[in-house]
Amino acid sequence: MATDSCRLIFMAAYLCADFTCATRCTKFMAAHLSADYTCAARCTKFMAAHLSADFTCAARCTKFMVTHLSADFTCATTFTKFMVTHLSTDFTCVVQ
């Protein structure tokens, strides 16, 4: 859990250009980043709902995920791969 907390705190700092977005993202991650593919699907849906007006934040968040979550839990690894596939070159799901 300590690792989780550090990751969430770092994410908030990394996304400080839009702290509201960072707060939403960290709260979602804390609550839902716990179960493999379902987690990825949930977070993608969350991003579509809450980050839709901020392309820069979406891009920044994806970059953070790819860089910092790949070595974490199974959920994080699967989630990162999912993000790379669906968000890194196509932001339509979060810009709709």
Distance between the termini: 34 Å
The whole-number mean of residue pLDDT values reads: 49
Structural class: mainly alpha
N-to-C order of helices and strands:
HHHHHH
How many helical stretches?
Answer: 6
What helical percentage do the residues reach?
A: over 70%
Strand content: under 5%
Q: Characterize the largest beta sheet: strand count, sense, and whether it forms a barrel.
A: none
Given as residue ranges, the uncertain stretches (5+ residues, pLDDT < 50) are 1-19, 32-37, 69-77, 86-96
What does the radius of gyration come to? 12 Å
Overall description:
This protein is mainly alpha-helical. 76% of the residues lie in helices and 0% in strands. The protein is globular and about 35 Å long.
